[in-house]
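for the recovery benchmark. tokens below, seq after
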């Protein structure tokens, strides 16, 4: 799921080299933290949070296939 998040984020932003995804696990729960440059925050979050919510939905589907749960936090730089 970390690789999926990186792929999606790098496809959206203008500065893909500044995309960082960190992952932590607690039993069957995965927590991802996404960091992008300050200029790209709007692209990742989207109008009204639509892009970020779409990414979360894709991650939930991927996690459910593996029997896990996932949360995504977009961290401000």
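predicted aa per position
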């Amino acid at each position: 799921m970390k690789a999926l998040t990186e792929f999606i984020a790098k496809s959206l932003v203008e500065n893909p080299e500044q995309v960082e995804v960190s992952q932590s696990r607690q039993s069957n729960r995965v927590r991802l933290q996404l960091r992008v440059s300050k200029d790209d925050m709007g692209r990742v979050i989207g109008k009204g949070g639509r892009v970020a919510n779409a990414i979360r939905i894709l991650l939930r589907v991927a996690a459910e296939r593996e029997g896990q749960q996932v949360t995504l936090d977009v961290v401000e730089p």
